[in-house]
Amino acid sequence: MIINRDIKIIEAILFASNEPVLEDDLKDKIREKNKLKEYLLNLKNFYLDRGINLVKTGSKWSFRTSGDLSDELTIFKKQKRRISRAALETLAIIAYQQPITRSEIENIRGVQMGRGSIDHLLEIGWIKPKGRKNIPGKPVLWATTDMFLEHFEIDDIANLPDKNELKASGFLEKKSAITTISELAKNEDFNTINNENEDEENIDDFITEN
């Protein structure tokens, strides 16, 4: 392809633009206006097998990344997401009562839960299905994962901190994720929490001493 000044101008405009450019706007910038389509076709063919392609959409033109490179150019970024109190309470109950069904979690929390909490914890990788309970309906049983242990720096699920350990470390005052786990610690009788803002005195009754 012979590169003349008009082609260079078209190429430069398209490279510099952050959105598709109208043919009429390109035509205004070149001398041989009647050759615009020829120049664009030449540029399109020139970039056909390169990392970027010249693409026409309607009456606009733009450079785009070659479609066969999409997988190689995909960038994954980690995003911090705030976990809801409901999800943390659900995680706490699963951690101390596992394996446990959804209805049993609801019984302990005292509220009906949507799918969001379970789905979010599953997406993070902190919980996993662990078979089904042998009762009518065979509901899914939920348990924590190795990723959960790694995140909270717990070497074994049997070593979850009890109430006194958390108080000594200051966690109960800080209200961190592991605090929520302690606040909803193991309770063999599945007592119902009627108030999600349970005060520490009631929490003390709820936590089972290890």
Description:
It is a single chain. By secondary structure, the chain is α+β, with helices and mostly antiparallel strands. The chain has 2 domains: 5-73, Orthogonal Bundle (Arc Repressor Mutant, subunit A); 85-206, Arc Repressor Mutant, subunit A, CATH 1.10.10. The protein has helices spanning 5-16, 23-29, 36-46, 70-73, 85-97, 102-109, 115-124, 146-151, 163-169, 171-174, 177-183, 200-206; strands at residues 21-22, 52-57, 60-65, 100-101, 127-132, 140-144. Strands 1-3-2 form a 3-stranded antiparallel beta sheet. The chain has a 3-stranded antiparallel beta sheet with strand order 4-6-5. A hairpin with a 7-residue loop joins strand 5 and strand 6. Helix 5 crosses helix 11. The protein is rod-shaped, with a radius of gyration of 30 Å. The termini are far apart.
CATH topology of the largest domain, by name, is Arc Repressor Mutant, subunit A
Oligomer: single chain
Structural class: alpha+beta
> In the CATH hierarchy, what is the superfamily of the largest domain?
Winged helix-like DNA-binding domain superfamily/Winged helix DNA-binding domain
Largest sheet features: 3 strands, antiparallel
Tell me the number of helical segments per DSSP (H or I, 4 or more residues long): 12
Shape verdict: rod-shaped
Secondary-structure map:
Blueprint: H1 5-16, E1 21-22, H2 23-29, H3 36-46, E2 52-57, E3 60-65, H4 70-73, H5 85-97, E4 100-101, H6 102-109, H7 115-124, E5 127-132, E6 140-144, H8 146-151, H9 163-169, H10 171-174, H11 177-183, H12 200-206
Antiparallel strand pairs: 1-3, 2-3, 4-6, 5-6
Helix pairs in contact: 5-7, 5-11
